[in-house]
Amino acid sequence: MIKVVDLYKSFGSLEVLRGINNEIHKGEVVCIIGPSGSGKSTFLRCLNLLEEPTRGEVFIDGVSLTEHRDNINKLRQKTGMVFQQFNLFPHMTVMENITLAPIKLKGMKKEEAREKAVSLLRKVGLYDKDNEYPNKLSGGQKQRVAIARALAMDPEIMLFDEPTSALDPEMVGEVLSAMKQLALEGITMVVVTHEMGFAREVGDRILFMDEGMIVEENTPEELFGNPKNERTQSFLSKVL
Amino acid sequence: MTVIMEWIAKLSDEIFFNLIREDRYLYFVKGLGISLQLTFYAALIGGCIGLMLALARLTNNRLLNFIATKYIDIIRGTPVVVQLLIIYFAIFATTSLPKVTVASIAFGINSGAYVAELIRAGIQAVDKGQMEAARSLGLSYAQAMFYIVIPQAIKNILPGMGNEVISLWKETAIAGFIGLEDLMRGADIVRARTFSNYTPYLVIALIYYYITISMTALLGKLERRMRKSD
């Protein structure tokens, strides 16, 4: 579903990604862990070209993103993204946040889009918040609205960029359980996270990144239980 | 007592000669109309030019960027009177456009440079994540700007924009340089007839002042309403 070939990314003289190769399959939940500055978020952002790779290619369903830049808006509809800082549109209600893209991009009827939004909000456990503005919501609620907003475009892949890192501890659970629900439904997910518990429980595969490379990848049982690389061992010993 | 009586007599004389005799108040009324018209159209033109320049400065296109930057430099680096005269006597010399139109264009071109910087700053103050979130949903750059970024930027831009319109309103007082009978020129004409040294100017000063504070009040109202959705 996603194929990444020899991906490099530099910001000026700073090399952030140094040759990433990987393949993410349909229905798979891949969690990316690693120390800060290891390039996890940059890697994720390359998957929908929010970050332009310096070299290498990203294929989604066999279509190269970098070769179809002119068609990027269409290709981006295949991936939904959830950000660390939520990035809800503050001048719009929850309902408008969710229905904007389906109405403008898919030509969905307003009523249809609203119905869909309500059912997505239910799915992430939000009721009666349709007409609130984002600033009336708690962090956990905001992030769940952001998930619903991304889902409204029926993406084939969901990208999560540290979705719980900006949350107060007591709100982490509600967001993670919404994500768990999605994973159970079989949505393909790529999750950059510091929540090792979540990665271990929900992930089908864990990628450990350090210094712009995937140092080790394995099933959660193996990677957490029996890390082979020295850097993975040292990282896990600090965070677990 | 007599001093006060004399003073009142003098005042009523001044009012009579400067405003009532030969319907001279009409110079002020018509002048006010012209000045308001100029301000309105110039603000409109300035707003459009400003938005285009701001977007040009925000793109990565070097040529557009260069043109916009130079435009802003040149306009901000020269007096508006000089611009008005050049535009009227040089650029539009051979056209038969009404003076009001030419002056509106000139003031609009001038205002556009200032508005551009306001809009650019207002857009840049919107969190980058907003554009990213919009693009990640599949919106094009233009759609993201139009639906997401600009509506939020307006809140940042509005106060400065109000100030710009208010200074534009006062700047139009130089329209007489190209022979437009605006408020300022109206006062000149009346003074030439009545030889009153200050009454006509006091009258227009009051008019300029009251229009300005009305605009300020209106702006305040608008800002308060915008803040409600925060």
Please explain how this structure is put together.
The complex is a heterodimer of chains A (240) and B (230). Chain A is an alpha/beta fold and 240 residues long. Chain A is built from nine helices and ten strands. In chain A, the strands form two sheets. Chain A has a six-stranded mixed β-sheet, sandwiched between helices. Chain A has a four-stranded antiparallel β-sheet with strand order 2-1-4-5, with helices on one face. The longest helix of chain A is centred in the last third of the chain and has 16 residues. The two termini of chain A are 31 Å apart. Chain B is elongated. The N and C termini of chain B lie far apart (60 Å). Chain B has one domain: MetI-like (MetI-like fold, Orthogonal Bundle). In chain B, 82% of the residues lie in helices and 0% in strands. In chain B, helix 3 crosses helix 5 and helix 4 packs across helix 5. The chains are: A alpha/beta (240), B mainly alpha (230). Chains A and B meet through helix 2, strand 6, helix 3 and helix 5 of A and helix 6 and helix 7 of B.
Specify the overall morphology of chain A: globular
Helix content of chain A: 25-40%
Strand content of chain B: under 5%
Oligomer: heterodimer
H/E series of chain B, N to C? Answer: HHHHHHHHH
Mean pLDDT of chain A: 94
Number of strands of chain B: 0
**Biggest sheet: strand arrangement of chain A:** 6-7-8-3-9-10
The succession of helices and strands of chain A, N to C, reads EEEHEEHEHHHEHEHEEHH
